[in-house]
Structures are given as structure tokens and as C-alpha cells.
Amino acid sequence: MTAFEIIQWFVYLFASVLFVRGLHYMNSPKTAVKGNHVSILGMVIAVIMAFVGFFYDTEGKRFTADFNVTALIVVVACILVGAIVGVRLATKTKSTDFPQLVSLFNTVGGGAAALVALNDIMNTTDDEVSLVLLITAGLGVIIGSVTFSGSLVAAGKLQRILSGKPAHIPGKTFLTLLNIAAIIASFVLLCAQPDQRSLWAIVALALSFIYGLLFVFPIGGADMPVVISVLNACTGTAVAMSGLALGNVALIVAGALVGASGMTLSVLMAKAMNRKLSAVLLGGFGGDDAAAAAGDGPQGTMKETSADDVAMQLAYAQKVIFVPGFGLAQAQAQRDLADLGAMLEKKGIEVEYAIHPVAGRMPGHMNVLLAEANVPYEELVDRDDINPQFPQANVALVVGANDVTNPAARRPGTPVSGMPILDVDKAQHVVVIKRGRGTGYAGIQNELYFQDNTQMLFGDAKKELEEIIAALKELDA
């Protein structure tokens, strides 16, 4: 190795250390922002080093001005376009749309990793090609292609461009297994016939693209958080494989971190929703039976209430549990909920926030929102710890949470069957703030809304919370 190559290796290693450190800081909401900044610094250093390497002639072992000017212009243009688009997306995207944004980032990351690996396979000479390169680059092509198409479909479902209901694909199991067998065969042939590596790499790419579609289309919106976690892990794994093929330590470490953390999160999310991760990887779970049952709904009527009545119930309660959900995030009402909680605490009322792992569109969504509103972290109680407390709660105030409170999950035959829920229905009185009478993301009505102890307050969460706060102030006047 030349002096420059040694320096480059250590710079990439330093960037990798920053990635690891940044991930460590994200263990706590208090240091998460610092973790983002540290990780960004590592990525900037890695990109700059890669750009400097563009001017280094590895064969001549020297820096040179003899390089492809067109390629340089394309690289610089792509960096500028990517930076502008990335900054705009980050600043303009609402927090409620972050899951779609993550899916789009997975699409770009998976596609980029697949193309880098494909380029490495096709442009490596016969003298330089090795089995290790074909294995790592081949896996990069396969995993990256699955991530690209699967994430694209997931983003479409989350944005409601595509239906959030599980898609019925005739012969899905047979087609999925056949597709997996064909991918494995193309990968084996890629490694066994290096002289035909370009052909088999393209075949593997196309088959993997199809598998990504078979993987995500049959999955309904209620299970999409697990899918996002799995695809995120796939993105990291594809990047790591491309890094192994290129011998780039920064890509290897960054990809391994994303892959390992994403898979760990996937296991935890699957457990939280009582789903088998193996079923997810085989392309769809929840079953066609669940999709067929989506049309069945509870019978009865919803009882409506007013902000004044809700304020009266809260004022005379001893214990209140807030249940935040996606509707809270959509209305950007987290600060209003925090203000309401603070008012009740000043009156000597015990207040806690019930946090379900998938109450938003992505893991930790509610934790981040409420931390932003300065809600004490000790008041955020996980599902397993809060569920036994609902029977003692005088009022459970549900703000925009839907599928995670649906008692239908306790019986088979529904799209949410088996998913652990918050036992809101066991509270003495339940008040649900909801924008309208529509169904949740799973596509079914919530049985909670039709129970005798439940009252509905229809309207924008922020507006209704403001009216409740105003009514409480009048009671104290």
C-alpha cells in the first residue's frame, strides 16, 4: 500500500468510529441529536475522502490530472443535486411523513448499493475477478434490488398512492418460493460461471426486483412498521456487501451497523406485533383470510361528546392515561397534550402517557414527539407496564391512536389479530379524539369506539385539545 492508501484507510476507519459513536448517542432521546451530528460528520469525512481518491491513480500510485473530466462533472453534479434534494426533503417533510421518507431513502440506498455491486461485477477484468468478489457483489445486487422495489412499494402504501390493504396475489406462496429458488440458482451460476457473470448478475437483479414486489404488496398497512425495519436492515446489508466487494472499510462498517441495528429492531417490532419475522421475509403475513375479514365491522353507534364534558371528566379524575397516536402527530398537537397534562398534574391528578411501539408510523415516533414537547421521560410508559394500570384509570384519553387500541386484536380473523394492543377499553371511561369516522390504517373499524364506556370527540386533535384546556381554565376560574 502507498502512503495515500494507508491514509485513506485510516480516514475511513475514523469515519467508521464516528458512525459507531453516533449510534451509541442515539440510545437516549437526550443525546440523539448529538448522535445525528456525530454521524453526519463521519459521513462528510468519508465522502470527502472518496472524492479525493477520484484523483488518485491506483495503477500509477500517484495523484494525476489525467482523469475522465466527464465522469468528474457527473460526480460533482450528482453530489450537488443529492445535497439540495436531501436538505429540501429534510426541512420540508412533516414528521408524520417520515416513514415514507425513510422508505424512499431505503429505495435510494438499496438501488445505489445494487448498482455499485453490479458495476464491480461487470467492470472487473477476468484476471482480477475472484470468488470472494462474486459472492459479496452478488449478494449486494440481490439484497439491494429487493430493497429498491420493496421500499418503493412501501412508500407508495404509506403515502396512500397504493392501497394499504393486503394485496391478494393468486398462488402467492408458490410464486414466492419459485422466485426465491430462481434467485438462488442465478447466484450459484454467477459464482460458478465467472465468464458469464454479467448475464447472471443482471438476471439476479431482475429476479430480486420481482421478489421485492412479492414481498411487500401482500402486506397490509397495519404491519408496515415491521416491513420498514426489515427493508432498512436490507439496505445496510447491501451496502456492507458492496463495501466488501470494493474493499471500503467505511461502507463495510456503516452497512453492518445499519444492517445489524435494523434487524434487531425488526425482531423487536415483530415481537411487539406478535408476528413471525420468517413470515415477513417470505413475503406477506397477516394472511389472505385477514384481508377477507377486513370488511367485517362492529355493530352499534358511536356516542359523541363535547370538549366541555371531557374537561369536566378530567377535572374530577384521580388518574388519567393519555394514549397518543398518529393523529396527534398529524395535527402537531404534542405540545397541547403536554400542556393539558401539566394542568392536570397541578390539580394533583396522576398523569401518564401510554406508549405503544407502533403507535405512529415508525418505532419511537411517539417518544420523539413527546420528548420534543418536554414531557418528562419517566411519564412515558411502555405497553407492558401501562396495561395493568388501565382498570385504575378514571379516564383514558386517546388522541389519534387507532389500530393499537382495537380490541379486535384479541380474537382471530381480523387484520390486527394477535397484535398486542393497549388495553384502553378496560379503563373506567374512554374519550377518543379523532378527526373523522374513517377506519385506521389496517382498514377496519375500531371496536373500542362502539363500547358503552367510550365517547367520541370528533375534530382536529390540536383544536379539540385547545378547547379542553380552555374549558378547564373556566372551571378553575
UniProtKB/TrEMBL annotation:
Family to which the UniProt record says this protein belongs: Belongs to the PNT beta subunit family.
Organism: Pseudoscardovia radai
Residues in the signal sequence: none
NADP in keyword set: yes
Role noted for this protein: The transhydrogenation between NADH and NADP is coupled to respiration and ATP hydrolysis and functions as a proton pump across the membrane.
E.C. no: 7.1.1.1
Designated name of the protein: NAD(P) transhydrogenase subunit beta
GO molecular function: NADP binding; proton-translocating NAD(P)+ transhydrogenase activity
Transmembrane segments: 6-26, 38-56, 68-89, 101-119, 131-153, 174-192, 198-219, 251-270
Keyword terms, alphabetized: Cell inner membrane, Cell membrane, Membrane, NAD, NADP, Translocase, Transmembrane, Transmembrane helix
GO cellular component: plasma membrane
Pfam family, one: PNTB
